[in-house]
Amino acid sequence: MQHTSLLLADPDPNMPEFLELSISNYKTKAANAWLGGLLSVVAPAFGATFEDWASVWLSVRDAVGAPLSDGLPRTPAPDMAGDPTKRPISTREVSGWIKLLLNRRCIDVGERSVSSHSAKATTLSYLAKHEQT
User: Fold this and answer.
1) How many CA atoms lie within 13 A of 7 on its CB side?
2) DSSP three-state, residue 90
3) For the segment 32-67, what is each residue's pLDDT rounded down to a tens digit?
4) Among 37, 50, 52, 68, which residue has the fewest nearby CB atoms (within 10 Å)?
């Protein structure tokens, strides 16, 4: 997602139901099936809850001075003052934020490994289980 070349909020930029991304730089881009093409991704604005995360995410980006039109990464790393930078956030930083957010909600993860990859794996698991029902 960090290498998204185009992001559309569909059907309405202020109240999206989906975010559509075109990604030009991805891990398997040299594979014959994808050679020279864009990877298209569609994300629902409503995820594991009924909250519209996409509108909030787009609003927060504008509020912190990181509109998508400025060419910043999709998830820019903050500087020491908390302002967005041209550097994309690292997986280690994302993992730290996830733990911080869970901690703020008094959710103890204990010895479990919680990371940015955990969120991806959880979402994929949800999809696989949905297909089985």
Assistant:
1) 20
2) coil
3) 666 667 778 888 888 767 788 888 888 888 888 887
4) 50
Measured CA to CA in angstroms, residue 5 lies from 8, 20, 82, 119, 125 at distances of 10, 11, 25, 23, 27
Round the average pLDDT of the chain to a whole number and report it. Answer: 79
Q: Which residue bears the tokens 């604005």? A: 45
Give the tokens for residue 37. Answer: 């093409």
| Rounded distance between C-alpha atoms, residue 21 and residue 5, angstroms | 7
Name the helix (H) or strand (E) containing 43. strand 39-44
Taking the C-alpha atoms of residue 30 and residue 1, their distance in angstroms, rounded to an integer, is 17
Question: What is the percentage of the chain residues whose pLDDT exceeds 70?
Answer: 78
**Using an 8 Å Cβ cutoff, are 3 and 26 in contact?**
yes
State how far the Cα of 48 lies from the Cα of 87, in Å rounded to an integer.
28
**Separation of alpha carbons 99 and 84, rounded Å:** 21
- Phi and psi at 31, nearest 5°, equal -65, 145
